[in-house]
Prior knowledge:
By secondary structure, this protein is mainly beta. It has one helix and 20 strands. It has one helix spanning 2-14, and strands spanning 19-36, 39-45, 57-62, 66-73, 85-96, 99-109, 123-135, 138-148, 178-187, 193-200, 220-228, 235-246, 252-267, 270-280, 288-298, 304-311, 318-329, 332-337, 339-343, 349-361. The protein has a 20-stranded antiparallel beta sheet that branches. A hairpin with a 2-residue loop joins strand 1 and strand 2 (39-45). The chain is globular.
Amino acid sequence: MKKIVGILAVAAMATSLFAADIAAHIQLDGSIIGQNGDGVGFLKLKKLDPTADQPNFTMSVSSDTAGAQLMHYAGTDDHDVKDSSFVEWNLWFKPLDGLKVTLGNYEYKLNNPHFGWWASLFDLPDYGVAFDYSTGAISATLAFGQNNGNVWSADPWKYEFGTFWFDSTKEKGFDKIGNFEAIFAYDLGEAGNIKAAIGKGVKVCPHGFSINNAWKRTDLAFAAGYSNQPWGQTGYFIDVAGVMQRDAEGNLKFNELDSQMYFEFHQDALTLYIINCVGFAPDAEKKFKDGFELKVQYAVNSITPYLQIDGYGVMDKKVTIKPAIGGSFGAVSYDIGFNLGLDFSEGGKTTWDVPMQWTIAL
């Protein structure tokens, strides 16, 4: 508690030199009614569960040339409030025009849908040093993470604080260097933009969709993408990524090719989002995988009815259908629907639930 008070005091003193901002976001999920084994359950509220890209609250200070962020999260899904903590922080500064240096937490993605934070094909969250440079239509990012070597544990995003990015006394060969990511982009104006990227330790599995690499860091990955998706307007993008992983002898070997296609359509109050993912792994038992997610909604004043279909498991004969309604009461927004899980494998079975979600963002 003393530590938090101290942090707040420092933030308060900084307001004389910096513009200070505190943003809060609390999200609680539950169920009105749903299956519970062979029976039925009523009224369930889960513990604090902020979305993966949204902290409980963020404290930030900034000027034109420098700033910092301090982000407070629940530890993982369904953790008690007592387990919440400040787990991400960074500071940044601009030593030159067009150059931004970030120290601490960062996350870079190739392209990201406006529907579903989870769905980026090429994603690297890490802790280290990052450089962002832009001049005219050209921009580039180079980031060096603290996770040295082929780090992977029961906690997939656990940072190895205090490790060297390059360590001559640790690991061998390519694994002497830690995680990194480089992204190069060219802005085509109204025609969109193109990007190319390379990275070690990158996650290549939108929504966990991958044949071999679901929720895993990759040993080496390459990607390219094209995007034309202005906010709130009809748009689209396509990304393709090749993954290299180590074989039993420790040699880098082509492991998987993944692609993601995204399209959103806007016409008055009607909005359609669709994501399609395709994977190919030549050495896997099932070499090819295809899946999709779709959401169509129609806004009526402050209420938005929608239909969402999760078809990432369609090749395993599994689909989830969710008709729902979203809306708000003042600063509090809600989402209430009906989840129907259809599993046509092994004779077929269904699951159902009436989920509810309540969110306040200030």
